[in-house]
Specification:
alpha+beta, Ubiquitin-like (UB roll), five-stranded mixed β-sheet, 6 helices
């Protein structure tokens, strides 16, 4: 052997101690890891049995339940207040639109009042009392309402009656007579 590593083209085999080298590497790798925490089973059972800790856990649960109930109550109060606040504004907005509707839905008729001078026409609602019509007529002819008698189909009309209650239809005619004093 000449030390050059080449013995007439025959390779040399070098034997390494792999077992010792692997252990050194493993020991180096284990050194950098922290040791696992030590667990004592007796400590855990002591903590679970400690009455003060049990009481604290129960108090914590009660407080959490109470806090959740308070949140739910507060939310329901806020929702209720929100509905009340939005409701009046909605009804105020809708009110002007609704007010004319009932008046427009009320049926109107034209009634002719026949007196000695001819016919005078008045438009009234079917559910209005005749008292209103009698006043309108008395004002138009400039007479005292107490001196007037209104008749329909030969019967005297009560001021509290309505065209609907007497079966008066559109374009029907009623007669008026002036009482002699």
């Amino acid at each position: 052997m000449d030390g050059k590593g080449g013995n007439d083209g025959i390779p040399q085999v070098i034997i390494c101690d792999e077992k010792n080298e692997g252990k050194e590497e493993e020991e180096e790798e284990e050194d950098w890891l922290p040791p696992p925490p030590k667990f004592d089973a007796n400590v855990k059972s002591k903590l679970a049995e400690d009455p003060a800790l049990k009481e604290l856990r129960l108090m914590k649960q009660e407080l959490q339940t109470c806090a959740q109930s308070a949140k739910d109550l507060l939310q329901s109060v806020e929702d209720s207040a929100q509905r009340k606040v939005s409701s009046p504004s909605q009804s105020l907005k809708d009110a002007p639109a609704e007010l004319p509707k009932p008046q427009n839905e009320r049926a109107k008729i034209v009634i002719s009042i026949q007196d000695k001078d001819g016919h005078k026409q008045f438009r009234i609602f079917l559910d209005d009392k005749f008292e209103r019509l009698f006043k309108l007529y008395a004002d138009r002819v400039k007479l005292n309402r107490e001196n007037l008698v209104f008749m329909f189909d030969g019967e005297k009309i009560s001021p509290s009656a309505t065209p609907d209650s007497l079966g008066i239809e559109d374009e029907d005619s009623i007669q008026v007579h002036v009482k002699s004093s």
